[in-house]
Amino acid sequence: MNLFKKLAGQTAIYGLPTIVGRLLNYLLVPLYTRVFAPAEYGVVTEIYAYVAFLFVVLTYGMETAFFRFSTTHPDKEKVYGTTLFSLFVTSIFFLVIIFSATPTISSAMGYADNPEYIRWFALILAADALSSIPYAQLRLKNKPIRFAIIKVVNIVTNIAFNLLFIVIIPKIVKEDPGIADSAFLKFLYNPEIGVGYIFISNLIASALTFIMLVPSMVKAKIKPDINLLKKMLSYSWPLLIFGFAGIINETFDRIILRRMLPDNVDAMAQLGIYGACYKVSILMTLFIQTYRYAAEPFFFDQSGTKDAKITYARLMHYFIIVCLFIYLAIMLNIDIVLLFIGSDFREGAGVIPILLWANLFLGVFYNLSVWFKLTDKTGIGAMISVAGAGVTLLFNFMLIPIMGYMGAAWATFICYAFMMVVSYYYGQKYYPINYNLKALSFYIILTIVIYTLSIFTNELGRNLEFVINSILLILFLAVIWFKEKRGVRAMRS
Fold it and tell me: What is the pTM of this model?
């Protein structure tokens, strides 16, 4: 149990700034969905989908390789310096290509009138890619305070500039139109930039984060070890494929959605609605992401212990319980949760339960991925992810023309369910872990039953509905507590 407390503590330490940051950033979504029209927010949704895609390419699995080789190589500083050197070279190469071909790229993406978007995000991606390894170094050296400070500065900077450009300055200009003619304000603000200020705020925050991490980069032994780099790249390239395919699964629907809808549909508006509801659905990923921050180095650290597999099984067990609770907490209070987004975006609420289950499956897959990372069979992991990408492509092309963004949600659900099942199959073959499937199946059925019961409370009035749903949520926790306590007693006896 001490191990679980240790992981929980590390999850809290490293995850708290991430949770707070994501929550604060999510609090910008109500602002965006009330200031910008669905079609304008569709631009934000699409471009950030491309960014997520390219970030995986730019980091090409080196973060995981850094963790792996830092635990096995005698010179950890050499591993750090070699990793930094590799990412520095590829990031500079990326910037040269993007800046040289900006007009062509912006036209191909449908943003010929806004080539500055491409340049801004090239800089954001390069800064974030280079920052990823110093962040990983802080986690590896167990320096949570510095990690948290830098994360918080990034978050506060991003939010502050969003509020400045989207709320404060427009309000000042509206109250005193004459001030808009001042040279300083003309330099600082141009109302025609619109949603572009979301991207500018991100760029300022990423640049500041990079500057704060520069000292740790300067201190590193940047002189690369070519033989070490070859070994790291050999380990990481399947992870690049794994991540590349994974990001297709995660973002391809938002990239392709506007191109697959019929001509008589406002595609950018539909994309904006889907993107806003997707933000609601991925509240579960706040927990998943923070868990992964602590879990990945923890998995490697525990791999040499005799009870490692028991530990991994228990972690999976508790992980799924927490995810099921999050699912119910959102779905039993969906009317309240939907206040998070503007009224013009709420028609897409039907995708939320589908995407919540999809993200739960993805979280389980992340837990299951321990088997191919510890056995160095990352190639099989990559193949599973590629197969998942194939499923994503197939069902997006099949369902979006028929069902619109609901088809995109179902494609995500099917993809992650497929990857979870296949990974479990191969994991039991190469690194068998005795998961308590009977108990987990019971909890999943319990979740479905409670959610189904809650549907019948919709006609009882909002106040009574809230009370009954709260009782149902407490009932879920009570059943879990009773069953887990009985399980612990059975183990002791």
Answer: 0.74
